[in-house]
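Regression test case RT-17, inverse folding.

Input:
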């Protein structure tokens, strides 16, 4: 079956009542058949019927052996990092999400985990950064906020020959566009708070693993540490997934039109969007993502920090807020918002300038969004 059909039917099979929408189970504990005998579910940290359904559809859509739903994207990334023994080394993309930077540098370091940040769009620099104690490469399927595109198949062949894991945070590229496991990744992570949930009303995270053994190791950690997705959020996430492909297709169409419009705007110095022919990894993006290039655009104004802040605050439809991927469009300044947790030096090295603006394209009419940006930029 095709993606859209699976998104609607897998994990949504009617129960004994015939209800077309599965019920929401809020039970935290389950009656067992006998002392020392265990039923399918025993305690909701270890598994719950509502979470199991959404995990089933997520694994199916990612082409994974199994998926796990977490209480947030960061909880999912943290669980992946807990695969690492003390003293391990991680090679990560230099333009990753600020919260992932913080997790690696300010939490994982407490366990003597070392991190090297390298430009993930350059597979050779990843190969060169691998050391004897490197255990994982962690990249984003579109770098954040500079919109760089890593060559996932090339990086996967590097990690495979080094015998280490490749984890891909694919929050910016939902599975209706691209599935990193098909390109050789071992592990895909999503902040499901974004496109998968799609309505800015559900904080959630996902890990989907290529093989059963890795899935079991992650499940062990998740169950032992407890950052699972609750029943209500599992239901909301599952509902969002049913319209994912339709929402994302329209948002990508709109994003490409807005990126092209921005590129021709006199007040804009440069536009970073993988769908533009001017993007340095445009051809690579096309190979992996086809004709949908995501819903996120970054651009730099001809102006200073004060002017950038002014424009971010002057939109009427684009809400000034972090987050992305949902039905409403958002605008933010990475240097002071999504990437404020980077050290200033690391931000400068990664090329995240103060005049960079990041926008998330929602489902509003494209003309209205262009008009809003136009009036905010003051022309
Ligand atoms: N990864 C990326 C690329 C993100 O944009 C975010 C959140 O913005 C996260 C991870 C963290 O996800 P959450 O906020 O659901 O914990």
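Golden output:
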């Amino acid at each position: 079956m095709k993606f859209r059909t699976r998104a609607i039917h897998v994990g949504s099979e009617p129960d004994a009542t015939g209800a077309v929408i599965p019920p929401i189970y809020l039970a935290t504990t389950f009656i067992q058949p006998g002392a020392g005998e265990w039923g399918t579910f025993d305690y909701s940290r270890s598994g719950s019927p509502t979470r199991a359904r959404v995990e089933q559809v997520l694994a199916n859509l990612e082409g994974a052996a199994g998926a796990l739903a977490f209480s947030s994207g960061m909880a999912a990334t943290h669980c992946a990092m807990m695969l690492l023994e003390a003293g391990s080394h991680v090679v990560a993309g230099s333009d990753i999400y600020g919260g992932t930077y913080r997790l690696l540098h300010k939490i994982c370091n407490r366990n003597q985990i070392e991190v090297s940040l390298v430009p993930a769009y350059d597979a050779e620099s990843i190969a060169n950064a691998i050391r004897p104690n490197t255990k994982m490469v962690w990249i984003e399927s579109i770098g954040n906020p500079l919109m760089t595109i890593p060559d996932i198949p090339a990086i996967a062949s590097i990690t495979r020959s080094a015998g280490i894991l490749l984890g891909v945070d694919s929050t910016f590229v939902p599975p209706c566009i691209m599935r990193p496991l098909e390109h050789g990744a071992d592990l895909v992570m999503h902040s499901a708070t974004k496109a998968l949930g799609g309505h800015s009303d559900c904080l959630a995270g996902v890990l989907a693993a290529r093989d059963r053994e890795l899935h079991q190791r992650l499940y062990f950690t998740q169950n032992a540490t407890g950052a699972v997705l609750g029943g209500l959020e599992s239901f909301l996430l599952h509902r969002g997934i049913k319209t994912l492909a339709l929402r994302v297709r329209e948002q990508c169409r709109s994003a490409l039109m807005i990126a092209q419009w921005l590129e021709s705007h006199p007040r804009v110095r440069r536009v970073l969007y993988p769908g533009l022919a001017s993007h340095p990894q445009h051809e690579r993006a096309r190979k992996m993502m086809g004709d949908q290039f995501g819903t996120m655009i970054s651009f730099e104004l001809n102006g200073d920090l004060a002017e950038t802040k002014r424009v971010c605050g002057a939109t009427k439809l684009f809400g000034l807020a972090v987050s992305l991927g949902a039905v409403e469009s958002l605008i933010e300044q990475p240097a002071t918002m999504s990437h404020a947790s980077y050290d200033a030096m690391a931000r400068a090295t990664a090329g995240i300038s103060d005049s960079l603006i990041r926008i998330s394209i929602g489902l509003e009419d494209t003309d209205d969004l262009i008009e809003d940006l136009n009036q905010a930029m003051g022309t």
